[in-house]
Every structure is written in C-alpha cells, then in structure tokens.
Amino acid sequence: MSLIVQKYGGSSVADAESIKRVAKRIVQTRRAGNAVVVVVSAMGDTTDELLDLAGQVAPIPAPRELDMLLTAGERISMALLAMAIKNLGHQALSFTGSQAGMITDAQHGSARIVDVTPKRVQEALDEGAIAIVAGFQGFNRVTGDITTLGRGGSDTTAVALAAALGAEVCEIYTDVDGVFTADPRAVPKARKISRIASEEMLELAASGAKVLHIRAVEYARRHGVTLHVRSSFNNHEGTIVYNPAEPGADGNGDPVEEPIIAGVATDLSEAKITVVGVPDVPGKAAQIFNLVAKSGANIDMIVQNVSAAATGLTDISFTLPKSDAQTVLTTLTSERQDVGFQALQHDDQIGKLSLVGAGMRTNVGVSAQLFTALYEAGVNIEMISTSEIRISVVTRADQIQHAVRAIHTAFGLDGEAEAIVYAGTGR
Amino acid sequence: MSLIVQKYGGSSVADAESIKRVAKRIVQTRRAGNAVVVVVSAMGDTTDELLDLAGQVAPIPAPRELDMLLTAGERISMALLAMAIKNLGHQALSFTGSQAGMITDAQHGSARIVDVTPKRVQEALDEGAIAIVAGFQGFNRVTGDITTLGRGGSDTTAVALAAALGAEVCEIYTDVDGVFTADPRAVPKARKISRIASEEMLELAASGAKVLHIRAVEYARRHGVTLHVRSSFNNHEGTIVYNPAEPGADGNGDPVEEPIIAGVATDLSEAKITVVGVPDVPGKAAQIFNLVAKSGANIDMIVQNVSAAATGLTDISFTLPKSDAQTVLTTLTSERQDVGFQALQHDDQIGKLSLVGAGMRTNVGVSAQLFTALYEAGVNIEMISTSEIRISVVTRADQIQHAVRAIHTAFGLDGEAEAIVYAGTGR
C-alpha cells in the first residue's frame, strides 16, 4: 500500500459543501488502495478574520498569542473534515501540529521545523484510518508553546510529513490546474507544465509564481519529495515537481528532452531604491547594505553604476519588497551624514520579469535572445540579474503585462488553446 | 498576595469591545495587588455556530472531532483576551485546557476531571503574569486526545483551578447581578441574595436556577471553594456562595440568623410520563425503572398511586427532561407485554416549583405553609417531592408564573424595589 499526502488550501475547504466534496475525494483515494494523510489549511478567509479581530483588541498583537489565535483556524477545518469523512463511512482522526509531531523553534509567526515525529499519524495509518493534520502549525518543546510556520506554511507541513513518513507523492491541491508557463490571468496562451525539475520550480516561486510556496519547494528538494500540484475542482493531472538528483526519485525526465525554458514569472511586489552620489571608496557599499540588513529588509537585486571619474561618486540601486521600503528609507536618511551620499530615490512603479529554465546552463544564447525580444517589443530594461538557471530584468510596472506576453511567444511557450482560469488565488 | 480566579462567560467576551472592557477589569484586579487567573468561555455564539457547521458536514458528528472543533472557540477568546491585557501594559499568557493541566477521563462531550496539575499556570503567576485559561476543555492522558466538560463546563474549570491553586475566591462573572430569590424575569420583586450556603445553591441549581452550573457548585462544595457570582457590567457586590462546613471557610453566616427560605426556583424543562395499570406485585417498579435507566434518561420525581384493591392495578408517574421522553416511551412500549401495564400517558405541559432553604431542617411548618399558599392562589398540586432542604411541587405549566409570585410573597421574600434585569441569559 503506497502512502499519499494530500494538502488542501483554504479555498478548497471554504464552506461545508466544499469540505464534503474534498472528503469524497479523500475517501476515493483511500478506497483506491492508498494510505492517506491529509494536511488542511483554515477555511476560506478565517485567518484574515482572526487577524482582523486581533487588530481590534491590540494594535501590535503579542506574537505568542497571535499564534494561539490563528491555530484555531485549522483546528476548525480539520475537525470538520474528519467528521465529514467519518460520515462517509471511513475512519478518520484529526491531529493538531503538536499531536502530529511538527516540532519547531520558538520563532512565533515564522517558526522553522527542527524535527518531525509523526508517531500518532503513523499509528492512525496502521489502524487503517485517514489522518487529518492541521497545516501551518507547530510546537516548541522548550517553551511548550504553539507556533506557526508563517504564510504558506501548510504546503511546508505537507512536504515535511511526506518526507518523514516516506510518502510516494505529496499532492498540493489548489484552485488552478497546476504550474503554468506564465500566470494564465496575464498570459492567456500560458500552458500547463506537466513536469518541472524542483530547482526550476524554486526559481519560478522565488520570481513571483504564487502557486507553490518557495519554502515548501526547498524542503521537498532537500528531502527528495515528489510534488504533484493539481486542482481540487477536477480530476486532471496537474504538474509533477521532480528531483532529478535524487536516486530512485521520479527523475526520468532526461535534460536533453527538456525545453530550454520552463516558464516566465512576473513580480509587481517590489520597489527600487537608489542611493545617489555615494563616494566611490572601498567599504561604502558594505556600510549601506549593513544598514539595510539591520532594518530587517530582504534585498533582491543590486546594481552599482560605473563611477564617474570626474566626481569620484557613484549610484547604487537595489530592489526590495514594497512593504520594507519605508523602513529602509528612514534608516538610510538618518545615517546620511555618516555614509556621505547625496540623495535617495524611491521608485515603486517597477516590475520584474524572470525567465527560468535548467536548459539555460547549456544554452549560451538565452540572454541575448531575451534582450532582443524585449527591445523588439519596445520594453526598456532598467536592471538585470542572473542565476545559473534564471534571468531577471526590471522594467516599468505598466510594461510588464505586454513584456511577459511577448517573451512567452518569443521563446515558443504559447499553447494552442487559451488556458482555463479559475476564480480565487490559491494559497 | 492573594489569588483570585475570575471566570467570564461568552456574553462577557462577545466582541472586541467586550474583550477590551473585561481586560481592563482584570488588570484593575491585578493592580489592586492580587494574583489573577482568568477562565474564559468562547465568544458569544461561537459554540452554537461551530455546532451548526458540524451539523452541516455530518448529521451525527464524531464526538472526538466535535471536541476538537468546539475547543477552537475558547482558543480564540483566550488569545484575544491575553493580547488585550498585554496591550494595557501587563504580562499575560494564555493556556489551553491541556496546557493548564485539566486532566479528564476520555468521555468526549461530557468528560469528568480526574486531576488538575496547573504547573504552567503557577509558573506564569510566579513570574507576575496574568494567566488566561480556556474554560470547558481538558485532556486525556491515555488517548492523548482533547476533551470537553459539557455545557457550563467553564464554571467547573474555574472552580477546579481555584481549588488546585488554593485561590481565596472564585469569581463567576455573568450578565446578572448575582443569585436571586427567584428568576427576576418572572418575579419582578425578586431580591439579590447576598450570601447563600453551597448546599442551598446546589438545590436551587438542581431545581432550575440557571445562574450557576450544578456541577461547578458541587465541585466548589466538595473542595471548599468560595464562589462570588457577580456581573461583569458593573462593580456591585454579587452573591457569595459559602461552605459552612469547611473549617476556615467564609462561613460566618450563623444558621439562626438565616432566613428559613433562600429562594424559589422553577423549571419548565420536564415532562411527565404515567404508566397506567401496572400489576401491583413486587418487582414491577424495579422492572420499569431499569428499562428507563437503560434508555439513558435521568428521572427526577416519582409518584406511585395507592393500588385499587378491586383491580390489583396501580399507576406510576415520573418526571424527566422533555428531551428524554420519546426514547423512554419507545422503550416502554416495546416491553409492554413483558411488564404487563395497560397504557402510557405523556404530559409535557407540567411545571415544577421548588422552595429551597437550609432553615427548613428546623422548621416543620414549611410544607403546610407552601401547600396553603398554593391553595389560596388557586394552584393545583399534581406531584410532591422533598429533600432535607427543598420542597418541589409539580403544577400545570401555565400556572407556574402565577404560583412563583404568590409563593415569593407568601414566604416574605419580596424586595422593596423591582429587580433590575439585564439582557441575555448567562451561561
């Protein structure tokens, strides 16, 4: 009997009817002869409603109590799902993160998994029951307190359980059919990807593709878990995220048969800050980025202009999440005298386009092809950054939609039919 | 520093504003120099809403999963309350039933407390923090599962913690000013009782007074916990429920100074079943009540008519909760041949009036005075039952309101002003 871990997001269990529908699908998987562990998020908007309540009683809610509050969400959905399954005549037992052995550090709101000891889950499986586990939540052994893994944490719970229990596959159910070559809402000719290597999926997730949480993909890659991203609203095959490096893993996709480019991702969530007139002496860049790091911001791309010989001054630009920009501007302004720069520029009208594909490694012409295609589409490039299997460019935000369609076509990614887009956003 | 346990019901924490109001009251108690443990119920109608959701996914929800579901309710209220207190600048930590050491048997939905080990609560107090504990919920050590204590269980949680921690008093906050000589909604001249012995409170609760749950009063009596029932909407002194037998307890109310009658309670929740034409031979009553017990019904009062010598047949009547009547009727009907009775009568239009007072022990005229007063008020008595400190009579349901006012006046319980009645029902 092979073990399948299934994860259902909030939109798949938004109300009693959805829960009953999901329960049927789970029982079908069980009756087909598989052992089944289900990881479930909070119903629909529950998490946002609880956050809203917290904001009403305290402007900055205590992190320990916020975790206690938010974990009520999965408690509700998992208990209801277990009831619905039992009502269909199959044994089911629900487990909190703590009961399922999701041991984390004590970082409330963004805890990291330090151990997974799913003894009770395994016992439930041994008795033939379907185990329902609360996503997103964990337990710290030292403090005895409940923790949460942060947004998208339910995907990570599912992957961690799949790794610990040696599951054949971890199915991530969402409201879209799988991973697409581009966001189908922006690019109508986007195609569903049937198989993608985990390193490519990692770059896509890091570049703005929202269907899978980057942390879950990282965990799956490190522990050799095969993911299957699919819709809970139909029975279509979704996207398999496989680990080519893993011995015995589902890695029969030979690199030579793969397309050079897996997909195009876009990201409108970043802003650009430019530090103007920085003295071009050793140590200045380090000083600036130490200040940025201290303010807690996550830097993405960095560009330093060539110094103008006449003045001995240079400009340094970097991108970061829009939500971090104000803190960084405040920090840098307060240290302006000490650093010795002339001015700060803040630009929140940028967009980032990323081309991802393992085939880039062996194909040197990809950058040139990208820049040419953008030029022909009349899109101006402001910043460039590359990794081994990714090229990202920053453009004006209002050009992103035009750019992604042009690039999708230029790299031969267009499908024959238009992609079907479902409501909702997934999580 | 003395320790006070405070329990707030669902109507006291119905929304964010109420939670902030309660938080202020708790912090005041702490700043007055007391250590404070707070037990809290789920917000307003949360429990009913969760029950409704459960009913939508499964007609008969699995008891283990129902407990998992319902305990989300206090998790939300306790976390919000702890946040609100911290926001007022005081340390606060919330604890689930399990974290607070409420160890129970494995009877889901109506678990009994078998041990209370509030180590973490004590540690929080030792650090100067206010401890917030989820009412209603517990933990079974053998199964590792979450349990609930049943309706009104939050009162029991508060009393059990007060006993285990050696609290000076357990304050039960509700939406009325305390315990009254009769339900102020039915008897406008009902007076608030300032002090009442726990055995009297027990009889009042058992006779239909809803302000305190009978199980909590029993626990308080057995463990010598002094209760203070009061309103969370003002600062009036409420009703002290004391334990005269307990050495060193707040028992300075000398019996000779007490009124003979503490209060009058009414109950419209029972039905009467009469088994007609039962052969008057030994063992028949035992046979009937064994059948009733097997069907799980709780019998209250029993009356057996004098046998008619000519027929050798007798009638047996008993009262029981209306919700149990149908099951009992079905069970008895199926055994009619074997028991040999002639017919069953079912009457759900009865009311019960109970007069409670420790002074009855030494005052033999109370029954006579009650029957005379009811006769003068034109109320017909159908059944009578007595304990050492209580007399209960069954009348027609539609005469109960008239009867309770007449009795309240006849026994000199009327206050000078009309009682103030607040909205809501308490819990």
Features:
homodimer, 427 residues, alpha/beta, Carbamate kinase, eight-stranded mixed sheet, four-stranded antiparallel sheet, 12 helices, 20 strands
Structure description:
The structure is a homodimer of 427-residue chains. By secondary structure, the first copy, chain A, is of the alpha/beta class. The first copy, chain A, is 33% helix and 24% strand. Chain A has twelve helices and 20 strands. In chain A, strands 3-6-2-1-9-11-12-10 form an eight-stranded mixed sheet, sandwiched between helices. Chain A is globular, with a radius of gyration of 23 Å. The relative contact order of chain A is 0.11.
Q: Kindly report the spatial arrangement of strands forming the biggest sheet of chain A.
A: 3-6-2-1-9-11-12-10
Report the CATH topology name of one domain in chain A.
Carbamate kinase
Instruction: Tell me the distance between the termini of chain A.
Output: 30 Å
Please estimate the helix content of chain A: 25-40%
| Quaternary | homodimer
Give the biggest sheet of chain A.
8 strands, mixed
**Which consecutive residue ranges of chain A, at least 5 long each, have pLDDT under 50?**
247-257, 422-427
Structural class, from secondary structure content of chain A? Answer: alpha/beta
What percent strand of chain A?
15-25%
Structural Rg of chain A? 23 Å
Helix segment count of chain A?
12
CATH class placement of one domain in chain A: Alpha Beta
Average of pLDDT of chain A: 90
Give the largest chain-chain interface (CB within 8 Å).
Answer: A-B, 39 and 39 residues
The dominant shape of chain A is: globular
